[in-house]
Amino acid sequence: MLNFTIKTPTEVVFGRGIEEKIGERIKEYGAHRVLVHFGGASARSSGLLDRVEHSLFDAGLSFVELGGVSPNPKISLVRKGVALCRREGLDFVLAVGGGSVIDSAKAIAMGAATGRDPWEFASTGTRPDKTLPVATVLTLAASGSETSNSCVLTNEETKEKRGITSETNRPVISFLNPENTFTVSKFQTGCGIVDIMMHTLERYLTPEGGESDLTDRIAEGLLIAVRDAGRRAIADPRDYEARATLMWAGSVSHNDYTGCGRKRLFPVHKLEHELSAFRDEIAHGAGLSVLFPAWAEHEMPYDYPRFAQFANRVLGVEMDFEHPERTAREGIRTLRRFFEEIGMPTHLSQLGIKPENYEKLAANTVRTVNGPVKSYSPLDEKAIIEIYRLAE
Fold first, then answer.
1. Exposed, middle or buried by CB within 10 Å (0-12, 13-18, 19+), for 69?
2. CATH fold for the domain made of 184-390
3. Which has the closest alpha carbon to 94: 135, 64, 53?
4. What 3 state SS string does 226-277 have?
5. What is the mean pLDDT of the chain?
6. pTM for the full model?
């Protein structure tokens, strides 16, 4: 097990009926004038936004709204949010939505506090040294952004998608009511299931970490729980316990607990970001469900026992101790079938990605990370194209 430092300071308020507490609780974190940041009309039509704003009003807090966040959140809206915060003297950002809304809120908060364009942090790899406090009201179990130290932005002008990782990104408090995910579509539920699993799998299947049995067992337990709850939520969207498992798993999967003692590289996320930057309509979870099995096929020869352990412990594939490669390969086939079972794509053609796009996408990926993508083997342009072909 590698040395590690873990800091997960976000307070989580979990369960039914918690919206009425939002105003009084964020006031304890210094809120006076609040930016309420959200996505589309569903936040209003569901009644959630009204409940949140009534809570703010009852706590004596003033607020300004900024809606319009889209999937793969855009730097252009972030810049509008930064200007609004500075013009109105706002001192707190409250995100009401899923991962895209929360990521956008984090970027607005860092821009308003530092006076710098958040895309500077995304494009240069530098980290903000301060931010406005952020709180979240989660409506989609997926990204884990409600407790994580990361956010991802898209520059629609340059068609680039970049992440910003900094401890200043962690929200101070997050409100998680599983009932707020009851109306999430089956497709978006499936995308969330994949994203949650990938946040743990990209920590679990990594070449650096050595023996880490406790961390492994935590990761494996989460993956099993998400698989089982995911099936139930797809079958019955109003299954509270299934939705609760997915919502809590989303937070735990990306707040670093499932990777303690292992070094996260996230190669599949880096590959996927180029897909959804290239075609904005590609949902992040859908890109991951296509690319992960292909990446695993390409990389498992470097560590068959590790991939076989995943297949056996998580997916129930019988272990072939003499030929672990057989177990490993059957595990990836089983995982691909699970993705298909919950309605997720597993082929690039389903995303509208064609063979003539491969070279450009591979070149963009390598350029974005300033060299080959770190994985079990260095993924240069040739290797990335091989992965695309495995995903056809």
1. buried
2. Dehydroquinate synthase-like, alpha domain (1.20.1090)
3. 135
4. HHHHHHHHHHCCCCHHHHHHHHHHHHHHCCCHHHCCCCCCCHHHHHHHHHHH
5. 96
6. 0.96
